[in-house]
Amino acid sequence: MKIFMFPCSADQPCKWLESLGIHQKGMWRMKCSCYSHCPFGLLPVKGGLWDSWGGLDEEEYPGDLPFRNQLRDGISSPILLSCWSEYYNLRSLPLSSPIADILSHSLTIYYILTALSINSKNLLLKEKEVIVTYLGPEGEMDWMPASGIIQTVMIGPEVPTNLSGTTSGISSRFRVKLVRGVYQEEATYLPSPHVIVALNCALDRYSNWGGALDLIKAIGVPAFFTEQSEILCANAKQVLRGAGLRITHPVTPNPFRSPVKNNNSSTNLHSYSNGFVLGVNT
Ligand SMILES: [Zn+2]
């Protein structure tokens, strides 16, 4: 992924952000440990896209207008994006803009809904609502201004109590409802999803995935997971198989992974946010 013209190696996140002039600013505050005292979802924002994007130049971040559907033969259809350069072109963004690092989450979900999940793609083609259950959001809660695409229920133990149950309409085409709790306990109260996603989920690291995976197996809804490195993918496959799930979407590189390389201190291997995608029940 050598198309970008900003430094793409962030072994020291603070230094990387500093080199781009966005350290401790806007949504980037969740990209290093400097704001780790601030619970996910509760970063104070002054308001405005310019602040959210940490004062980047106006031409370096996308406006908040949703993608316009393309008209083909008089029929409106969603724009299908297959790589970052298409997105940057569509939004007329310079390749020096680092926003791909934050937009990786929304674009990965968009890619799953429009390219990997046939069911949700068909719904979008018919301009019907797609309901996504998003498991275990953390920093993404503070990056919601960066989204703008879909209807999502984000559920996880990290959702702050005072935000639980709130719905925010970020644009006419995107609503997010936040729910604090554990998926398998809350699922009966939630709208039944067309697709379940969990990003950078580190399936091998959290024992509480077990209950959620049992439920995914029971309801048979397509579920997609991203992991940051191939080793984590190998571990995730074992965890999924151990839960009795069959991997129907094999591990593939995600075209909308973050281009920014991190050094995983425990394994000393490079990793990328949303590096690889795999799926079950697909
Ligand atoms: Zn920092």
TrEMBL record:
One family name in Pfam for this protein: MSS51_C
| Domain Mitochondrial splicing suppressor 51-like C-terminal residues, every copy | 107-262
- Which protein is depicted? RNA-binding family protein
From which organism does this entry originate?
A: Hibiscus syriacus
